[in-house]
Amino acid sequence: MSFSLNLSFSDLLLLLPEIFLTCWLCVVITVDFVSPRLPKERLAYLSVGGLLATLGCLAWFDMNQVSGTLFGNMFVLDRMAIFFKIFILGSTILVILASIEYVDRFTLFRGEYYALVVMSALGMMFMASANDLLSVFVSLEFSTLGFYILVSYLRDDLASNEAGLKFFILGVFAAGLFAYGISLVYGETGKLVFSDMASAPATPGLIIGFLLIFAALGFKIGAVPFHSWIPDTYHGAPTPVTAFLSIAPKGAALAILLRIFIVALGTFKPTWIYLLVAVSIVSMTYGNIVAIAQRNIKRLLAYSGIAQIGNVLIGLAAGTKMGNDAILFYLLAYLFANIGAFAVVIAVSQAIGRDEIEDYRGLGRRSPFLAFSMLLFLLSLAGVPPLAGFIGKLYIFIAAIKEGLYTLITVGLINIVISMYYYLIVVKQMYINEPIDPSPISISGPMKTVIYVGLAGTLAIGIYPQPFTDWVVAATLMFANFVTPAATVMPPSLLIGG
Amino acid sequence: MGEYALLYILFAPFAGALALIFVSNRQPSLVRGIAASAAFVSLVASLYIFYGYDPVRGGFQFVQKFAWSKELGIALYLGVDGIGTPLVLASSILLFAGIFVSWHIKDRAKEFYIWLLILAAATIGVFMSLDLFFLYFFYEMSVIPMYLLLGMWGSHTKKYLEMTDPEGLKQRDSVGFIFNFGSNSKEYAAMKLVLFLSAFAVAALMGILLIYKFSGLNTFDILVLREQANLMNIPVLGTTLDKIIWVLVFFGFASIAPIWPLHSWSPVGHAAAPAATSMLHAGVLMKLGHFSIIRVAFEILPETTRELMPIAAVLCMFSIIYGGFVAFYAKDTKYVIGYSSSSHMGYVFLGMAALNYISLSGAIIYMFAHAMATGMLFAMAGWVYDQTHTRDIPSLGGLSNKMPFISGCFIVGCMASIGMPGTVNFVAEIMIVVGSWNKYPLQVIVAMLGIVLTLAYLFKMMRGLFYGPMNQKYSHAHDAVGTVDRLPLLMMITISIGFGIFPMHLYEVVRSGVDPLIARITHVVPVAESDEVLRRVKDAAAITNSPAIPMVSNTPITHVSEAPRGGQE
């Protein structure tokens, strides 16, 4: 495969968000070096400013339907990529705002923390656009690199170090699997770009290769049986990093999974549907049942995240345009509820210093705002109307029932009930149990912003989802005729400005 | 305001709850004022639709439709027919009464009213939804407030309170408390209620999703589905699809009704709940089950309903007898009323199972009547509990000296609950009994036995609470003297007796909803033109038992009831 690099200015426009963010990353690092006495929250606001500018640029792209491909189809900017980039940037901004207070706990390298967060976000933005096995691999490892460091940022905390080590070893193992999978797929088909593989015959090598790739991506999203790193890593990592880890990489990896399953393997749907159904059922059931036994709120959210991914995979198993819409919609609902729940966890742990579930005793009296927000976030994760999570789950179920996935839906519905139990245990601690120490809990300004954004999103999506469904439906338009091999091939001329 | 009445009824409580978020608990009178005025708006608008509903025209009135999600085929589609109208009215009456019943709540009053308003609004939402999605949406939404209301303001049973040793306290707070801590705590009751109802609600959701898929119409609109969905004769798993959907929908919604053997969450929940919540719970929440079965199973699967409704006829006997006997032996005031409610819900199932004009109308009037009667009883049990802090009947007694007004009202409540002539319960019971006699004589005999049982356990409780020697421990108890305390009871008594003496408008409204439904299910044309109620009932029953007469046209019949002035009372 050979391609020539003759980039025009208009080609570079497609890369504008990434280019801008790279420059901004350099600015953040430079500012941190040049003026070490600068209060670190200024650095946080500086990073947020850059991310907001990038977000604005992407929003402009989305409104004007800018799309195109670069580097011989390695990099694709379609509306789905834009959706995932906005998703990643949004979660990054909220995570940075939620970490401003928490960063004081780090003994060293407080400034670099923000740079690393932005760097990981940059890597994930490339993941959202990757349309080729090599660019997937490179961007995946690029974003994970930042996370390896971020997870073990609490240098004096054994749990954080353990989390980092566990994440690193398993992460590198997954990278190895991925590379091996790529080599097998390339050896069998001679192709790297997803849309070129659609007509490849199903040889054993190809199947094993894709299974290995699926395992590596399953590791990223934390689906059973590739989940073993999740609880310990989530538990040990600094809480804002856990929040980041629980949202953004899952979104980015799902973008790749969508491209692989729908574009590259669209013709093999009757085969891979069994794989996805099995993984989805096991993830939901395992995540929810093990979550019941958890005493630590971060571990509880880790297992609930595993179960949520099982739900998302129902949409992937549906394998239709509606299934894809439902996945994107579900991720939006999950973003707001999960970031909000983690923001509450951070706020509580700032005040109390621990994050066991029993520390939430009487939160309803100590801080009615935090308790009420947590209630709504947990109920949204459980899927209770009128919150976002309910519409998300229903959207996925409707997409799946149209494809006749009755078993999967039955298991999903039963799991809603199981999950309600452990979410309500937290609610019980917050509202029914009386506090041991009734002193009120104060919340910082940025944290309040994050929680308000989470609440607004959770309620808005739940009460009036039409604008959001419109957005996701438009975002997956590229998949409207995904059975045909040339699904991702863009029109030859760039479509800018309409 | 006319055509927007339903929006006022539905959104006034939501708006009240929203406004309450911004009020501080330090202004209790403002909090109560907002809650009461929200409920008042709802009540006035409900009275407006109840009396503004035109039974001659029939069908769905006050219809409001807003597109909600084009992608999923969902619209916020609201409207009431003759079946929904009385239930909406009952909900807003009980909400209004419930706010006054809980007037003296001290602990986190604001939060209490917020959840109570959301609970009532969600319940009202079910009664006016013409879209399957929103029916489920509001149904599930009404479950979660129950958890918080029970957990935060509920009360434990006597046994639980005795368990105060360190080991017992530790067990109360353990994660797996459901498994290692008996059924006596309010936490257990709340959790059981939510999990039980959610588990069966998702079964109903599965049924709804199957209707959505196999109708192929891409819509959740009940009116479209009932006209166009063809779900019959699709073979699945050795039976047909419509039967599977019907069973999922029926048992999914019957769990909240609650039909035996799915009733076990209900008395526990009643017992743990604060008075106003018990009122709404027994008064209207349980009716969500019957109503949703009528709306989903009866409307969309009429043929299957005719085939499978005998299941309900069998189960309702167990409901009536089992609930009655347990209520007789229960020692906790709220358990007695709770089991009595689940027993009485058996009558509604009997009325529904018989599937004729008289019995189904009776069932719906019974839902309204039971809401008033059980609302009164729970309000008074709540008052007694607030005064004495116990619900243990053997330790109480002789309270009529201390609270003559309450004990007087209690007699009226018992009479209403038994179905004494003069109360609306009598009208309903006689219609159920007469309407079902030809088809289910055994069940009617059981229902009669149930009435005797009701008499027995309610009188037993009345004697235990208000008569006999008084326990001096409770000599500080006092009567309901203030207007605020008497208003809700007097209101419910007035309505119960008022409709008992003048049931005609209620009857006509209900009939206008029942007629097209029964005509679709049984293909029997309703009988009119008769001045005497007995003859009319006989005719209706006779036709029901004769081979089905196919209807000439399938359009809904808007039946004008010429008949019975006087008669029943």
Commentary on this structure:
The complex is a heterodimer of chains A (498) and B (569). Chain A is mainly alpha-helical. Chain A has 2 domains: 11-264; 271-463, no CATH class. Chain A is 72% helix and 1% strand. Chain A has a two-stranded antiparallel sheet. In chain A, a hairpin with a 4-residue loop joins strand 1 and strand 2. Residues 480-498 of chain A have low confidence and may be disordered. Chain B is mainly alpha-helical and 569 residues long. Chain B contains 25 helices and 4 strands. In chain B, the strands form 2 sheets. Chain B has a two-stranded antiparallel sheet. Chain B is globular. Chain B starts with a helix and ends in a 24-residue tail after the last helix. The A-B interface holds A 292-293, 295, 322, 325, 357-358, 364, 368, 379, 384-386, 390, 394-395, 397-398, 401-402, 404, 409-410, 413-414, 416-417, 420-421, 424-425, 427-428, 431-433, 464-466, 469-470, 473 and B 67-72, 108, 111, 133, 136-138, 140-141, 143-144, 147-148, 151-152, 173, 175-176, 186-187, 190-191, 194-195, 198-199, 202-203, 205-206, 209-210, 212-213.
